[in-house]
Amino acid sequence: MSKREEEKCSLVTDKDSLKTKQATKFAVSTLRQYLVEKGHNENFEDFDRETLDKTLRIFYSEMRNAKGESYKRSSLLAIRSGLARFLASKRQLDIINDSEFKSSCEMFVSMLKAVSREGNGGIDHKLAICSSDIDCIVLWPLIPLPQLV
After folding, report:
1. pTM as predicted
2. 136 assigned to some structural domain
């Protein structure tokens, strides 16, 4: 392969950021782990469209985090987006917009609404750092340290 062709290949493989690749990997491993726990074949990318739709429908309805709690809305969206990226790259499937995945999409939307009703729809914002703490952070190299005896 010529250097130019290698550069073109690297453009395609490096199009996603590191965080996007990590999110996709997490989504895929989450579904694989779920399938193993349920005693199913973990190679969901090989499922026919109908089986994949049914599998995703059940997965979306039963998806829980490590603590056994419902995921937050943003996490649900991230997992589905990761699965969509993975399946688009492996089999050119669009699990979000393809009409063959209507059943799983309906379940996903229902789960988003259920999570919002439970109070997990929003984002947990941290308290702002007060200005006196910011001053301490900025000035810390200038503050003399006490001498240890």
Report:
1. 0.72
2. no
